[in-house]
Amino acid sequence: MAGRPGPRGRPDQDVESRVRPVSTESHTDDVEVTEPESTGVELDADTAEPTERKAPTGVRRHLGAILLIVALVASAGVAAWLYFFQFRTDLQVNADAQKVALDAATTGTTALLSYSPDTLEQDFTEAKSRLTGDFLDYYTQFTEQIVTPAAKEKQVETSAAVVQAGVAEMNPDSAVVLVFVNQTTTSKENPDGAFAASAVKVGLTKVDDRWLINTFDPV
């Protein structure tokens, strides 16, 4: 009878030994081992999905950048076209108009201040063809009443040369030119001649596509 409890005790121990390995800790260990593996797979899946979604976005951004560059280049091309074909054309037209006005002022000044007692009528007629308005009236009266009698009596002869000139103001129908003149005058009383340098502000107006002098003011 003393030996029977032994066998009964062994089955209990065997059961305990069989139950202990299948414990909560052992089960938890199994879960902990498998959990990182499943988590790793899930992370891979999560990271793969956004990569597939971001690819079209990256392409769209890249394409948008290209289109923006193309638009900027096109805008620059349009601006360059406007500059060279419109703005530069305006500058050229303005430069041409300034040249015409400058020529009218310089040649007109030379004609106004140059005359000889032998060719007074011809010289004054040439000068008056370059004048207009009130100044034309004044010049006609002044040459007829003052200059002609004195030039004939004293044999006054003047010769003017423009040494420098520049456009001070430029408008579509008017301009102002600053003219620097050297003038030599001879007469019976002074056959050796007298030299004078002066500056004149010449005002011009456009009449029938011609630039004519309408003011003549010494500076």
Automatic annotation (TrEMBL):
<feature type="transmembrane region" description="Helical">
    <location>
        <begin position="63"/>
        <end position="84"/>
    </location>
</feature>
<keyword id="KW-0472">Membrane</keyword>
<protein>
    <recommendedName>
        <fullName>Twin-arginine translocation pathway signal</fullName>
    </recommendedName>
</protein>
<keyword id="KW-1133">Transmembrane helix</keyword>
<dbReference type="GO" id="GO:0016020">
    <property type="term" value="C:membrane"/>
</dbReference>
<feature type="compositionally biased region" description="Basic and acidic residues">
    <location>
        <begin position="9"/>
        <end position="19"/>
    </location>
</feature>
<keyword id="KW-0812">Transmembrane</keyword>
<feature type="region of interest" description="Disordered">
    <location>
        <begin position="1"/>
        <end position="56"/>
    </location>
</feature>
